[in-house]
Each structure stands twice: as structure tokens, then as C-alpha cells.
Amino acid sequence: MSYTMIKILLTMFLFLEVNIFQHQFAEGICPSASKRSVHISNGLPPKSAPLKLHCWSKDNDLGYHTLDVKEEFKWSFCANDNLYTCHFWWGSKNRAFEVYKPKVVNTKSVYWVPQSDGIYYLEQTPYSSYFEKKYDWNN
Predict the structure, then answer these.
(1) CA distance 119 to 121
(2) Cys bridge to 29: 1, 10, 24, 76, which one at CB 3.0-4.6 A?
(3) Using DSSP, how many helices (H) and how many strands (E) does the chain show?
């Protein structure tokens, strides 16, 4: 095979790879290294009122959800500059805050667990294995 033919084949291969990669991002498919996820689990006491929440970013409204005790709402997305915010309601208590900050979070998954005394957070890293209380409820 001639040197020119090898160059042509290599150029075609690279062109196809770039187009496939761009198409995957356009379709919402991303490589696992770029995938991020947010998990929200209802850690409220048994027989409590359900947890209600609404989550959104500037580009995506994830809607309103109602979680019974131990239920989870989660979503995944490609790493980008989107900031995600959620508003939580539990009986007469509520709290709204940013659940994913792209410039701050350097991990693939974050976990939020509302409990009766506040809202707890875990950023999944090799060094982090416990939930810490981040927010109190507003009355």
C-alpha cells in the first residue's frame, strides 16, 4: 500500500471518529469519563409526609417529583457548564439550593439525602465515604 493511500485512509478514519463523537454528544450520549450523575434519596423517617422536589438547570427542567421514604430520583448528564438547582418540600419545611456546581464538583456522582434534621451530602470520591450535613430546613 502506498504512503498516499495510507494518509487518505488515516484521514478518513479520523474524520469518521470526530463525526461519531460529535453525533454522540448531540444525541446526549457521552463517554463514561464525561458522565455525571446526581442522586436524591428520601431519608426521612418512616410514615413521614413524602418529600417533594423540583430540579432544573438553565437548559433542562427535570420536573416535579414526589418521593416516598427510601425512594430515589436521579439523573445523568454529560459534563458541561450547567448548574443544577433543586427545591425541596417536606410538610411545612422547604429548602432550595444548587445540587451540582460544575466548577466546584470534580466527581462523577453526588448524593443528597434529606432527613428530618437537614439535608446531607456525599461527593463520590476515593477519599469520601460519609455524608455530611450541608443544609438545615427552612420553616
Answers:
(1) 7
(2) 24
(3) 1, 9
Residue 16 is predicted with a pLDDT of 44
Which residue, 57, 37, 25, is CA-closest to 105?
A: 37
Residues of the chain with pLDDT below 70 are 1-28, 104-106, 125-129
pLDDT at 82: 84
Nearest CA to 78 among 14, 40, 21? 21
3-state SS string for 63-120: EEEEECCCCEEEEEEECCCCCEEEEEEECCEEEEEEEECCCCCCCCEEEEEEECCEEE
| Of the candidates 56, 52, 45, 42, the residue with the CA atom closest to the CA atom of residue 113 | 42
**Cell representation of residue 74:** 436521579
- The cell for 76 is 445523568
